[in-house]
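note to self — DONT lose this again. spent like an hour looking for the file last time. sequence + predicted structure for the chain T wanted, 170 res
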Amino acid sequence: MKEKRRLLNDEIRATKIQLINDEWENLWEMTMDEAREKAKSMELDLMEMWAKWDLSIIKILDYGKFLYRQKKQEQKSKQKWKAPDLKSLRITFKIWDHDLEVRRNQAEAFAKWWHPLKVSLMLKWRENQYENIASDKMNFFVNSLSEFYKLDSPVKKNWNTFIAMLKTIK
């Protein structure tokens, strides 16, 4: 969400103002002309912080430093935010029920941290003749994750591997 641009120096049209300094301390109540003269003598800028009817709150500050601090703060907040990593789970054609439950618990842990998930099932050698059973096993596993994840696209078969991409439910 973008903040609206604040009025500066000559753009301010208030008649009566409350002047505050950079540390938000209340300095004076005066007219706009007096505030402009004071800012000019101190080589600072005036920025309108709040306006209501006949009274406006104006901050006296160095606008260049204000923009610099604001830009640095935005950069710092961007560094803190990290996109969730894509996690992947591999299941096999011959996986047992207990092992499938372990994989389900791992997926649940990934979902708590909002990580997208890639589930793959690779068929080896003679397992390739049982594609329908492998597809059923993959669909069963993906459906068991339905309370944490939703299917991003249908399960796809690429050569001898079934792949499902899942997104967290928000």
